[in-house]
Design goal:
With 228 residues, this protein is α+β, with helices and mostly antiparallel strands. It has five helices and 13 strands.
Length: 228
């Protein structure tokens, strides 16, 4: 009986702590400062070569549903959204479908569930490239760690562990459907809306859409949205 009671108390405490870790979009910056247990500390020095970030600067942003401005940056290695509070770095607890909008640009990140090119279900932050009511195009920003290399002979040189940017991967979402990988090939893109393949193909040709340019993909996403 004592064991069952202890287990019940432990589980209650575990779920209570988990609930406390969730951030409410209406929470103010003052609430964040006075409730730092809602964030994990992220201040340990990292001497590894390269960078975990596509942009190391903290930028002003708002969590969708809140008017408070916070300073954030995306850690592309751990896939965390970091926030600067009183010159300390904390991690914003992720929450499915949470959107973080940069206030000095049109850049937005969404924490979503998606299927990658290997067919694996994942959850993480994706950068919005084209945000429309019926069509969304996303891009992943990923950094991986290239392990250190020790010389095998006197002719080789030591190479330290280094953070490297992974190849961009793109995704799309139609209406309320799941988020799927988007191969950057004309055949794959025009077939997003099968009954509108000719119109999409003509738009790509007439506007000289480059699949390697985010601005062009944004333009393409807006056009496909207009067809639906």
């Amino acid at each position: 009986m004592k064991k069952i009671l202890f287990l019940s108390i432990s589980l209650t405490a575990l779920f209570s702590n988990f609930a406390e870790a969730q951030i409410n979009a209406q929470q103010t910056v003052n609430d964040i400062v006075t409730n730092e247990r809602r964030f994990a500390d992220k201040n340990a020095a990292d001497k590894t070569a390269g960078s975990k970030y596509f942009n190391e600067s903290f930028l002003p942003a708002k969590i969708a549903g809140s008017n408070e401005i916070i300073l954030v940056r995306h850690n592309a290695y751990t896939d965390d959204m970091e926030v600067s509070i009183n010159n300390e770095v904390k991690i914003v607890p992720s929450e499915l479908n949470m959107t973080i909008n940069m206030t000095n640009s049109t850049t937005s990140y969404e924490y979503v569930e998606y299927t990658n090119e290997k067919g694996e279900k994942k959850q993480g932050y994706l950068k919005l490239i084209s945000n429309n009511p019926k069509v969304k195009i996303y891009k992943s920003e990923v950094v991986y760690l290239k392990p250190e290399v020790h010389p095998a002979s006197g002719y080789d040189t030591y190479q330290p562990a280094t953070y490297k940017k992974a190849k961009d991967e793109y995704f799309f979402k139609l209406g309320d459907s799941e988020i799927k990988t988007l191969p950057l090939k004309k055949k794959a893109i025009v077939s997003i809306v099968p009954e509108k393949e000719k119109e999409i193909a003509s738009f790509i040709k007439e506007n000289k859409i480059s699949f390697s340019e985010d601005a062009d993909l944004n333009q393409l996403g807006k056009f496909i949205n207009s067809l639906m």
